[in-house]
Amino acid sequence: MIRVTGLSHRIGASTILHDLDLTLPRGKLVALIGPNGAGKSTLLRLIARLEPLQQGRIQIDGLDLATTPSARLALAMAVMGQQARIASRLRVGELVGFGRWPHHHGRPRAADHQAVDQALDAFGLTPLRHRFLDEISGGQAQRAHLAMTFAQGTDWLLLDEPLNNLDMAHARALMARLADLVRGSGRSVVTVIHEVNYAAAWADHVVAMKDGRIVAEGAPATVLTEPVLSALYDTPIEVARHDGRPLVLHHHRHDDLDAPCPGPATETRLALH
């Protein structure tokens, strides 16, 4: 499990996280949700040790982030941040192969090549294996970075908004792939998700954050409720059920907006199963 104790973080004079205590379970797909500025990505980056720990303690399966060597952590967790498009002459297969570095340190073996092949196949990238990164789309590059993280073969995958740049079909396929990974191998995924219906459809455990604090956590049916979500996003939200899972209904009523809006109220219903 990942155990977070007394975690606070500041950027300049602004407090981003306020004394968080949190336990993320093993063998689950964990979704971090909340409005912009809630502290989701900051929390993930601190767990991934991409940001220096200022106050508090973080442990991953008993490993203390403050004292564990990076080489050891690289065998326990793989991290994908919010990627910028890489314009280089690096090929897709080469990028994915970097995920095996903690295992072979520059001397890949048959098992490493096999892991790269499996990662390329899992994310539909085998036909693009020899393409340069500056020759593929943003969504394809996003999948290549995900494949690199997957190829690392760690018990924990930490993903910061992995659905960015993905169309509906690939976003759904990715969430299904992550869910299958968790349920089939016992690996653990922690991901920041912007669209709550992906969390509703696929997550096992949801952590809702706002203003640097934990508002609610638990199973989707417990967290994704009308009172919690309406308060979390400061807008009226309805929740229905679909295939035994919550289905979040986003409403925009003209009387909720600052400026008058002609026409009837509109409603968007997203079924992402």
TrEMBL record:
Localization of this protein: Cell membrane
Topological type in the membrane: Peripheral membrane protein
Chief location category: membrane
Keyword vocabulary terms for this entry: ATP-binding, Cell membrane, Ion transport, Iron, Iron transport, Membrane, Nucleotide-binding, Transport
Domain ABC transporter: 2-236
Pfam families named in the record: ABC_tran
GO molecular function, one term: ATP binding
Stretches that traverse the bilayer: none
Name of this chain's protein: ATP-binding cassette domain-containing protein
